[in-house]
Amino acid sequence: MSKLVSKITLGIDVCKQELVICDWETEAISTLGNQAGTIKAWLKSLNGPVRIAIEPTSHYHLEMVEQAHQLGVEVYLINPRQLVHYRVAVNVRNKTDPQDAWLLARYLAHESASLRPFKPQCAKAQRLWALLKRRAAVVRARTQLNQSFKETKLSIKALLTEIQHLLVRIDKHIQALVHALGWWADYQRCLSIPGVGPMNAAALVAVFHRGAFPGSDAFVAFIGIDVRLRESGKYKGKRKLTKCGESEIRRLLFCASQGARSYPLFDDYYQNQLQKGLSKIAAKVVLARKLARIAFTLLTNQQSFIKKEIAYSHSP
Question: For residues 108 and 115, what is the distance between their CA atoms, to the nearest angstrom?
Fold first, then answer.
């Protein structure tokens, strides 16, 4: 009878120049240079099935993550926000690189059943996300420039024109990538939703193709637009968004909620949220969540949004 081999569980804390590694079983701490050649040699020296937990840190974790995945190592990207709460829960007071590596290893060892292994996107999909985020940065810069020079006599019209030309080029690149990835039909389905524009549609399709979601709840949770409840006995805590995942998709959905109100049924839905006592921002967030659920349903069923003709009766 073959003997069941347990997986080696490692936690890796990432720095720009160095990786700090903790073996959960032995609690041994080691360091490794954060360079491609060093990482490759270290991964090939590992014996037996291995799984690693790593906290995303800018782009410094990518070399380890991509090489480990290529060699068949199970990789888990741990949400930094969750790790902060986990540190408090297990009463870890100190925060050092070795302590963080140990905490990551412990988190994976105890919580692996509720975690999903990392699956990298293809290069084109990664470039699509990068362009969406860079476009958002350009839009923010344009807004800041407008506000900064609003009360001055200096003209920035030429600069704003160049920024607009840059945005047009970025938009063309994004649409070309959607075509190249074979997502154009899904892109059009998202565009059929009232309020959803080209960038909103591209982001929704990109998120949808990130992985297999069992339902719209999982899709909404992946976006981070689901609500965290804090209730105990008579205590009713304030509800807050989990804000997991890419912040840009949440921003785009929130923007789409404004345009979506041009469709009467969506505006009625928004007004109902206001009547419940929600603020205008909260009501827009609820509508944005509704748009995400609709997009997921359309993409799953390969359908387009069909507007309903609504006749409003006016009393004499």
Answer: 8
Residues with Cβ within 8 Å of 228's Cβ and at least 6 positions away in sequence, in order, are 239, 240, 241, 242
Whole-number Å distance between alpha carbons of 94 and 286: 39
Q: 8-114: which CATH topology?
A: Nucleotidyltransferase; domain 5 (3.30.420)
Distance from C-alpha of 121 to C-alpha of 218, rounded to nearest angstrom: 19
Which of 59-73, 116-130, 290-304 is most confident? 290-304
Q: What is the pLDDT of residue 314?
A: 46
The three-state secondary structure class of 261 is coil
Average pLDDT score over residue span 126-140? 92
Residue 234 has pLDDT above 80, yes or no: no
Quote the pTM value: 0.72
CA dist list (Å): 246 to 24, 143, 253: 30, 21, 12
Contact 86, 110 (CB under 8 A): no
Nearest alpha-carbon partner for 267 in 242, 284, 244: 284
